[in-house]
Amino acid sequence: MHRLARKCTRSIRDTVKYAHLPQRNFHKGRNLIEELDARQFLANVTRPEELAKHLDKPQTVYSGIDPTAKSLHVGHLIPLLCLLHFQLRGITDSATGLVGDPSGRMTERELSEKAQIELNTLTLAEALQSFFSRAATYAKDKWSIQGSIIPEVQVLNNLTWLKDVNLLDFLRTTGIHFRVNHMLARDSVKMRMDSQQGISFTEFSYQLLQGYDFYELYKTRGCTIQLGGSDQWGNILSGVELINKVELGGPSGESTTKQKGFALTTPLLTTSTGEKFGKSAGNAVWLDENLTSYLDFYQFFMRTADADVEKYLKMFTLLSVEEISSVIQDHQAHPEHRIAQKLLAKEVTLMVHGEDGLSAATIATQVLFSNEYTALKAEQIIKSLEEMFGTPLPNLVAKHKLAPSKSAARQLVQAGGLYLNNVAQRDPRFHLTRDALVDGRVAVLRAGKDKHLVLVVR
Fold it and tell me: Distances from the Cα of 307 to the Cαs of 128, 304, 320, 322, 343, in angstroms?
């Protein structure tokens, strides 16, 4: 799973095998676990050899998405694409989003309002369906799949089984299987306990809820595999342990021949300081074009460092590992041409935003960063740049230096200090449209009393 909130889960129907997709010699004889390892998707796996055999038959796999934000971001791509390799169906659960997950954080996450969580859950469900729909189209093209059916995303809410759980019953049926000394030994908990703020009981108990969700899905849907970011390793193991203690009547480590359930974690996409990409870190690149434009999304991957580009190609695209190795050889011969970065940006934008999004991003890139316009048509340029009207107002303000940074621009908006055509704009998600312009052409932005920016559409 992923961070805090019970997240979005997706599962394969019992009638669907991951092996149903034609291979097109795509995996060079590698089984799924070997393929995921070759693509650097694996951080930790329980009983990998047994898991590989387990996947010879149809299985149910589940992971999660944090509903404290209402959009997916690039950090979600790693588990989502790992799930795509499993040919998953989907679920979204949100109840534990009302709690807070200590994993990978030095401070306690602010609790989200119930109404906000419910709204986020709905929008994330739609975003997941959109992502997997486009990813399926992308996969069929890359793998030359003819007539194969990739399961659609299905959405569930863990509030369905948690809303009627009585605290005393939960402690008696679930809490009894957990030992506090083992819970304290989790790395995520120890890190927080060593911090100045410490950890609340609310966050400390999160691993019980996450473990309970895994057991519930195991019991009702035959879910045997849970996937998440590496910061979730301890929480996922709690679910594996609960399944085994309830089903086998003893600790999960007593008999490897009888163990049930598997845990699999992926590496986390991090910044140069080691923090996860995401809403709370302040540096998110969203999959929603209304929050991050096609151009900015494309350029994010274009800016990938040479040291990271091979890894990103393996993780974020469905190009074969062998094809990627060949591309990297060409790239290393002429790094100034940024061959690998261009391919990465193209493939990821195509998968996430489709042909139209990729076209808008590449044309806008050519207009803004290239000296060659002869192959472009005026209609293409106008269409690609009109997409930038979807840029959130704070981003636009920061881009044109009316504020020193995006965060400063957001603070300015929230404080009521930013004016558009002499009207205060307090919504940091507001984006410019032609209707908001004077005569559909002019936007006069003012920061405070004396800093002005005039934008004109020619």
Answer: 30, 8, 19, 18, 15
